[in-house]
Amino acid sequence: MQGADKGQAVNLDGRDLSVGIVQARFNDALTGRMAQVCIDELKALGVTEDNIRHVTVPGALEVPVALQAMAESDQFDALVALGCIIRGETYHFELVANESGAGVTRLTLDYHLPIANAILTVENDAQAEARVVEKSRDAARVAVEMANLLDDLL
Questions:
Q1: Where do the domains of the chain lie?
Q2: What phi and psi values does residue 79 have, to the nearest 5 degrees?
Q3: CA 154, CA 146: separation in Å to the nearest integer?
Q4: Suppose 41 and one of 8, 122, 129, 140 were both cysteines; which one would form an S-S bond, judging by CB atoms 3.0 to 4.6 Å apart?
C-alpha cells in the first residue's frame, strides 16, 4: 500500500485505556501544572481516574527509568513523559535534553508502547509558560490516539 490514508479517522476514545504518567519534579511549578492539564485531558477523552497512574521523579534524566518500570509492568496502553528543561549557562542542558529524549524514544521502540514525550526543552521560563497547556493536552491526545492505532495495527 503506497502513501498514507489521508482520510483516516483519529480515534481519541480513551474509555478502555490505561495510561501512565511520569512527571519530573524539577521545575515543579511548571511540571505540576502540566500533569494536571494532561490528567484533565485524559479524563475528557474518557480515560477513567482509576486507569490513570501518575508518578513523579526528581528530574528529566530519571523519567526513562520510571517509564521502563511502567512498560515492564504490562499494565498500560500508553505512557506520557512530562518535564521541563530550561537552558542554563552550561552544557548540562544539552546532556539532559538529549539523554532524556533518547531514553524515551528507545523505550517506545523496545516495548512497542506509545510514549508521548512532553518533556519541554526551552530557552527560558517565558517559553516554558507558553507551552505548558498546549503540550500537556497534546501529550494526552497523542497517548490515546497512538494506543488506539497500535491496537488496530497489532
A1: 25-153
A2: -130, 160
A3: 12
A4: 140
Catalytic residue among 92, 123, 124, 151: 92
Q: Contact 80/115 with Cβ under 8 angstroms?
A: yes
Cell of 145: 490516539
Above 80 in pLDDT, residue 111?
yes
**Over residues 19-32, mean pLDDT:** 97
Domain 25-153 fold is Rossmann fold (3.40.50)
Nearest residue to 124 (alpha-carbon basis) of 94, 84, 83, 92 = 84
Amino acid letter, 25: R
Task: Over range 77-102, report the average pLDDT.
Answer: 92
Instruction: Give the number of other Cβ atoms within 10 Å of residue 19's Cβ.
Output: 27
92 is catalytic: yes
Specify the length of the chain in residues: 154
- Which grid cell sits at 126? 517565558
Using pLDDT thresholds of 50, 70 and 90, give the confidence band for residue 2.
very low
